[in-house]
Amino acid sequence: MAEATGKLSRVTELVAALRGRIERGEYRPGDKLPTEPLLSAEFGVSRTVIREAVAALRADGLLLSRQGSGVFVLEPPQPAYPMLREVDQTRLSSVLSLLELRIAIEAEAAALAAQRCTPEQEEHILTALAHLRAEVAAGRIAAEADYALHLAIAAASGNPRFVEILTMLGPGVIPRAGVGRQPTADPGYLAALDGEHMAVIGAIQDRDAEAARRLMREHLGQSQRRYRAMQMSG
């Protein structure tokens, strides 16, 4: 059962990552999706996970398989959740409202992850953290890798609804994915983010639900304070 749950979470996270790239225009209508070996190497998942994620996106009308040619991106259909998808994530006021929502959702997801996380899910969280660190070390904004880490924690809650809500919101909920003025080049800022992530993960590893809830709230609350200060500075 734990193996099946872990596989499901990886499929869900890959679907969210690929969907985000399509919606942001990184994969444009008519583009051919990277091959299974390339996607498998990039995301660190098996080809079975790749196929199931592609099948899910085909069912959503985002991909089309052509025998002998590959998998191609289709024009995205009208979003199923326009009120959330149409939030202007380049505005600091929108970023702050999304962070409030995330605190309500992700603090409880982290607490449940501390209670229910399987060894495989814990390994997946650590893999996501390592990928995020590699992206930051390479000088990238790394918003998608940050999002994948939060998805991995949500998946470890054992409640797929948390993952569904974060997937609905999309990678744009990571503030630096949309806000133009961002402190991502500041080593102190990046070190603080890494420390906050490690504190949450440590509480999950210690199976301390109260600490995981509190530390996730503090992590997202710190983001609120950072971006509110940007808003007030004009």
TrEMBL record:
**GO terms for MF:** DNA binding; DNA-binding transcription factor activity
Superkingdom, natural source:
Bacteria
A Pfam match: GntR
Look up the signal peptide feature and give its range: none
The UniProt keywords, alphabetically, are: DNA-binding, Transcription, Transcription regulation
Q: Which residues form the HTH gntR-type domain?
A: 8-76
Designated name of the protein: Transcriptional regulator, GntR family
